[in-house]
């Protein structure tokens, strides 16, 4: 069954290069299909045992899914059937991607994977996937620096920035941050660790994504604090900030780290979200019927059907509140609390430790203030696998 996980991680760095457009504004990615197969395995096992998966996050995941479904049901009164079906796909994808967590827990994690007669850990395979995304991003930056040609299909017009296969510097940035943090967990060989951290950090710098920079600083600081090397972490942060001064300054507004237009755009989406939260405080507008709610509020332009920003808010926490209300926000907060508690459990030895987990959460929490990072599919794949690997280490029986 580990073949499915390998396929998932092989397809991970391909991003949006492989996609099937099934309808206007609806695309299916390899991640979705593989996660669907994983879900089938998990469901089959649950039916066989006649019980829910034995995982620490089962009940928080089920609760949030139920609340999200309830919000969707309530919001169905304001949309047509085709719109309801389109909106429900967002919830379906979120539920399918949780299968990465449940499925990973069914694998013999401690045995690792056999690759060319060499045994590698699942962490190392995940890291390789992230580094592949970084490498592809650098290739894009060198060969195709001007990505404004993709604006006509709904993407932002980025130029002279590393957007990678995800076609977005912000979301590519948070994956690179998580990759760098995972690389810091490597112990031996040291040259490989240095190369992995350097590659992911270099790619991160070229995104010119300020939210990703802040996420990196938050994660790096927490990581250094957790391993009791705060002094080295502060030195690393100083060097990172110093490198920002020497970044190439192309004739593009996107490479201006003092740019204001993106900030004001974010503030505008926050204001729009605040109005809708005020009008729908309990269960929100529906998870995820936000695109149609924004259309009713006249917040979207003529491209409302294809615009990728139309179905989201540039803030994960406002997104949760506007789509699922206070009830959904509370359910999601409980899920994050349980994840944090999971990371704090056990010892730091072996596997994915507290430093990596808490640093990744700190980075994602920071990035989520400026982007809908908590619900981005590639972030979900990464985090669900990482969380499962941590839980798997807690299940190991102590040696006699």
UniProtKB/TrEMBL annotation:
Compartments where found: Membrane
Membrane spanning stretches: 29-47, 59-79, 91-113, 125-144, 159-182, 194-227, 233-251, 317-337, 373-389
Protein name as annotated: O-antigen ligase-related domain-containing protein
Membrane topology: Multi-pass membrane protein
Alphabetical keyword list: Membrane, Transmembrane, Transmembrane helix
Source organism, top-level taxon: Bacteria
Gene Ontology annotations for the cellular component aspect, listed alphabetically: membrane
Biological source species: Candidatus Chisholmbacteria bacterium RIFCSPHIGHO2_01_FULL_52_32
All residue ranges annotated as the O-antigen ligase-related domain in the record: 196-332
Phylogenetic placement of the source organism: Bacteria, Candidatus Chisholmiibacteriota
């Amino acid at each position: 069954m580990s073949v499915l996980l390998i396929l998932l991680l092989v397809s991970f760095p391909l991003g949006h290069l492989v996609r099937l457009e099934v309808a206007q504004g609806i695309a299916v990615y390899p991640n979705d299909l593989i996660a669907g197969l994983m879900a089938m395995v998990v469901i089959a096992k649950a039916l066989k045992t006649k019980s829910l998966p034995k995982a620490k996050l089962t009940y928080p995941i089920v609760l949030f899914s139920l609340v999200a479904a309830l919000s969707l049901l309530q919001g169905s009164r304001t949309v047509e059937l085709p719109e309801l079906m389109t909106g429900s796909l967002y919830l379906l994808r979120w539920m399918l991607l949780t299968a990465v967590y449940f499925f990973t827990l069914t694998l013999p994690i401690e045995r690792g994977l056999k690759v060319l007669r060499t045994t590698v850990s699942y962490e190392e395979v995940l890291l390789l996937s992230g580094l592949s995304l970084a490498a592809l991003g650098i290739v894009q930056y060198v060969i195709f620096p001007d990505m404004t040609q993709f604006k006509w299909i709904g993407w932002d017009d980025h130029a002279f920035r590393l957007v990678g296969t995800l076609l977005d510097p912000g979301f590519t940035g948070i994956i690179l941050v998580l990759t760098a943090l995972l690389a810091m967990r490597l112990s031996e060989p040291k040259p490989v660790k240095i190369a992995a951290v350097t590659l992911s950090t270099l790619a991160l710098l070229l995104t010119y994504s300020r939210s990703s920079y802040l996420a990196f600083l938050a994660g790096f600081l927490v990581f250094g604090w957790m391993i009791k090397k705060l002094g080295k972490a502060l030195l690393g942060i100083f060097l990172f900030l110093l490198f920002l001064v020497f970044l190439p300054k192309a004739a593009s507004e996107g490479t201006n780290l003092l740019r204001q237009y993106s900030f004001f755009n974010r503030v505008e989406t926050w204001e729009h979200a605040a109005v809708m939260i005020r009008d729908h405080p309990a269960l929100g507008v529906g998870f995820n019927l936000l695109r149609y709610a924004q259309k009713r509020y006249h917040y979207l332009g003529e491209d409302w059907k294809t615009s990728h920003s139309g179905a989201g808010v540039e803030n994960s926490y406002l997104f949760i509140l506007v789509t699922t209300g206070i009830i959904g926000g509370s359910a999601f907060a409980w899920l994050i609390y349980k994840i944090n508690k999971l990371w704090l459990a056990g010892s730091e030895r072996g596997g994915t430790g507290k430093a990596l987990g808490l640093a990744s959460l700190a980075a994602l929490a920071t990035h989520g203030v400026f982007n809908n990072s908590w619900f981005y599919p590639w972030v979900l794949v990464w985090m669900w696998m990482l969380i499962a690997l941590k839980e798997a280490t807690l299940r190991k029986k102590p040696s006699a």
